[in-house]
Amino acid sequence: MMETIFVIGIIIILFVFLMHKENHHLTVSKYKIHSDKLPAEFDNVKIVLLTDLHNNSFGKNNEHLLRRIRNEHPDYIMVAGDMLIGHNKADYYDTLNLLETLSKEFGIYYVNGNHEQKLAEGEETKDTIYKEYHDILAAYGIHFVHNKTIKIKRKDATINVTGLEIASDYYHKINRPEMTNEYIKKCIGRCDPKTYTILLAHNPMYFNYYADWGADLVLSGHVHGGIMRLPLLGGVISPQYILFPHFDSGRFELNSSTMLLSRGLGVHTIKIRIFNRPEIMVFTLNKE
């Protein structure tokens, strides 16, 4: 009996150690994106993707995260949402401090995830927590792309950055409405086929619709890499409780569209990551 208790105790200690290690040790994943639609002025432009921080902190004042980002020398930073936790006692000051520091060094483009949306729609939070968070970030010069398009200009050339904020119903675990191409166009209009377009879309589940819309590059998060990752099988479960989701992390291709799906930087509620370390995604645009 004592031996069994001892073994269980050792397993629990090892599990807790693994959880701490997985949640606090960053990885950097690097990709190259090739397209003949890219203007020559955007050749070799480097972009960092941040998502799903959930107010997590890597070292004091996020010094470890900042150092890893600065080491990449990006030209821009894209934020695909869920940088805080969506409840009425949300603590977001670590995230604010991080984004304030980054905004002094880089151009930042930000779309809401479902956690920001929850705050933006909640009666107790929309005019308090969310408004304060949004207004402070806007004062830092961060570009919000919630269902709109902003042009990034280098010399006389431009690319588009569009942010898609779908209704919260599309995140439901059951009874989700059917996604349609018409709904995407209702949210963000038509895609300009002549201009290279980056689509920030927090939920990767609807990649085929993003590709049909015309996005050249989709940047997503939300799935947290599937919580646990297993060799050959990949991510185990999505936030919608889909086992072994096809879109779990990494790079996906569909027709002429590419999606980069980050494992994210934080966790919330049940703070578990197994073989699934927090991730900074870095990609370089290359004109073919």
UniProtKB/TrEMBL annotation:
GO terms for molecular function: metal ion binding; UDP-2,3-diacylglucosamine hydrolase activity. One of its GO terms (cellular component) is membrane. Residues 46-225 form the Calcineurin-like phosphoesterase domain. Transmembrane segments: none annotated. Keywords: Hydrolase, Metal-binding. SUPFAM superfamilies: Metallo-dependent phosphatases. InterPro entries: Calcineurin-like_PHP, Metallo-depent_PP-like, Metallophosphoesterase_sf. It holds the Pfam family Metallophos. This is Calcineurin-like phosphoesterase domain-containing protein. It comes from Anaerosporobacter mobilis DSM 15930. The lineage of its organism: Bacteria, Bacillati, Bacillota, Clostridia, Lachnospirales.
